[in-house]
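pasting input
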Amino acid sequence: MNATELGLPMTVAAQGLPARVRIHEVGARDGLQNEKATVATAVKAEFVRRLAGTGLSTIEATSFVHPKWVPQLADAEDLYAAVADLPVSLPVLVPNERGLDRALALGARRVAVFASATESFARANLNRTVDESLAMFEPVVRRAKAEGVHVRGYLSMCFGDPWEGAVPVPQVVRVCRALLDMGCDELSLGDTIGVATPGHVTALLGALDGADVPVAALGVHFHDTYGQALSNTLAALQRGVTTVDASAGGLGGCPYAKSATGNLATEDLVWMLRGLGIDTGVDLDRLVATSVWMAAHLGRPSPSRTVRALSHQEQ
Amino acid sequence: MNATELGLPMTVAAQGLPARVRIHEVGARDGLQNEKATVATAVKAEFVRRLAGTGLSTIEATSFVHPKWVPQLADAEDLYAAVADLPVSLPVLVPNERGLDRALALGARRVAVFASATESFARANLNRTVDESLAMFEPVVRRAKAEGVHVRGYLSMCFGDPWEGAVPVPQVVRVCRALLDMGCDELSLGDTIGVATPGHVTALLGALDGADVPVAALGVHFHDTYGQALSNTLAALQRGVTTVDASAGGLGGCPYAKSATGNLATEDLVWMLRGLGIDTGVDLDRLVATSVWMAAHLGRPSPSRTVRALSHQEQ
């Protein structure tokens, strides 16, 4: 018998944590966008469909970036059309007004823009300064809001930057405030290179609270590069955060290592939340089965420890 | 440049955590005892020597069990003699009075016995009931204390058992009390199958406090089977625990999967503690280099995420 059949983990609630967490599932977009081999649209659609079948309520579907930048997502229209009937939220990324046009034409009701907390990454990823990129997003957010569309603002490099090293907390707070002030409904605080630790998470959330950023508008997006994603998540839950980004099977690793770890694996998150008695609505066994299925398509094992343990998957 | 060269992780202390943590390094014993291929005594000794060179102050060296049970540790005498000059604590495991005789003959100043919180594991591992195994340890502990030797009591299956599933907290507290009452100086609360979650950790530590078990006498020994070891460690630190067991490079995995994860990797722990500003005395870069060196000897990569990230090690 595996652990879940034995009734493990035991559920023992901890004080001061939320009763419910919404998981923002990014495996289909963030997880697959860096795959070298093309993943067939039908496989992606089936993946999204299976994810929806696990009880996940928010499944980021794709990104309407120019195919030149992310060839893996060149099928955004076809994929979105193939899953639009699912009874879940299907946010999509839009880098600019052209991307928003494409998303709106398909009837998308949730979009996301992606900003950077550092000048170096804004330059590398968007070829703009931080303020220039905010200026680019402003009309996107305004038009989306005018259409009644929910807007998420991703913020990269909130805890460290591969060129600049340390990222001062006030610098992150400033960009968060700017994104909310232009109309974003929700922010996702990204630890893009996985260097956050729990005290840093607590400090940033405290500073955002001090800047009148409501915790209900915040999600956290941790990477497991140094194995810290779950302890950072625990620190965020202790500060009242109720939206956590994760990627089924831990899809979306660093480019330099096979099965290396980028995104927090949804299964590892669900395991912890189940133990804490925090409701997610997710069926863990179905989720593990979905990640095992996807891993077979990709031809390499999941880096999720929970997937490995529950599926007795060889590395 | 890697992250440490960039000054990452940023150090941001969190309230209510200890200023200093003692890492009880188990890689040389717990990590290597299940290796199928024999590791040469000289390699093990060099491993212990390099670990000592990283600043680790407590390095569990070997186990004086009968070689029939753990063939990999049949060289306990030779290994201990080869490292006894190191200026660190070198605890050794002793299952019974014969083992204690061997350890004392070599001048060991710290020994450990290993008990079980569950009847199923006591039967499987010690071929005794829990109470019979406690009776077996009692003269071992008494004699060790009479010799002025420090005694650690390991307690397995504190959070779940692969036969019994849930393990009630009061059952764990009872065995902890018994081990302390017979003279153990320190306990190590083992999550042998990795099923603990943070609320469970908090609850057990609270119950032990209620049973007058001083937190200073407690260490935690988490496994990363489901990726939970560090968040459980954070919960333990928040309850005042200052002794944490870990294994360099995450050595000591589940037998069923190559590079699968058993013990918490010391590097992942040191990374978190460094970020939290908690002093460990450990040089992380030297520790990573030691684990990379050992991984080359074992012919497979380290499962530690921090080792992989800092060494750019392919999986």
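fyi Residues 255-260 of chain A have pLDDT under 50 and may be disordered.
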